[in-house]
Amino acid sequence: MTPKSPALPSGPRDLFPGALEIMILQTLHRQPLHGYAMVQHIQQRSRDLLQVEEGSLYPALQRLLKAGLVDAEWTISASNRRVRTYSITPKGAKHLQREVLRFEQMLEGISLVLAPNR
Description:
With 118 residues, the chain is α+β, with helices and mostly antiparallel strands. The chain has one domain (2-107): Winged helix-like DNA-binding domain superfamily/Winged helix DNA-binding domain (Arc Repressor Mutant, subunit A). The protein has helices spanning 19-30, 35-45, 54-66, 90-114, and strands at 2-3, 33-34, 50-51, 70-76, 82-88. Helix 1 (19-30) crosses helix 4.
């Protein structure tokens, strides 16, 4: 997963470790979805600033499944295709709450460091 940043000549950069998992859990906290719908949701919510590649999404989903933070079941999509639909578990919801708090604290610290001297 990479943020779009045309102002940076060095190209796209990876997010901090765990960022994709937090966004997946937050997306699934809203509603169960299949992989492609998650990609679309994250891209839309970020106003196209973030794009999730399949090569990042599915390994992250496998890690979340293995950790018991999400469940998956085979369902039929609106376009009548068989898809694997993911949902957050109670353990995943608790993990999400902790990680969002940690992220907010980290963001506050970064903001303080980047703030102009007063």
